[in-house]
Automatic annotation (TrEMBL):
Record keywords, A-Z: Nucleus
Primary subcellular site in the record, as a coarse category: nucleus
Protein name in the entry: Nuclear receptor 2C2-associated protein
Family, similarity comment: Belongs to the NR2C2AP family.
Cellular component GO terms, alphabetical: nucleoplasm
Pfam families for this protein: F5_F8_type_C_2
Protein's organism: Pelodiscus sinensis (Chinese softshell turtle)
Subcellular localization, as worded in the UniProt entry: Nucleus
Amino acid sequence: MPMGPLVCSETVSRVSSVLNRDAKQFGKKHLFDGSEETCWNSDQGSSQWVTLEFPQTVKVSQIQLQFQGGFASQLCTLEGCRKGDELVKIAEFYPEDIHALQIFRTEEATLDKLKITFENSTDFFGRVVVYRLGVLGEKL
């Protein structure tokens, strides 16, 4: 089966924080809206994260991220699990501090829940700004 986008309207997403709690302007919905003009902007903190709970079991093979330069994560940790299980570390990757879309291939992992933790932000205050988050793989 060909690789395709896994985030859909039934995917439940959560984020660690939103800048000034202004979800209308900087909320999680902007991670997936496909607009070049909107973004998720975290508040300050040492590590920020996004969790995704998929409506069905998926096999993840690629993560796509587009940060705002100066507000990127230098280290991302990927964790996942099946329903009812504890999160297990799947991979680490090291994005560049640039605005371009970056693609990270992962060892295929079968899961229902995915957590991406953004560690070591290039911003002095620990904020992360993500214009686009894509999760690609297969729906099982």
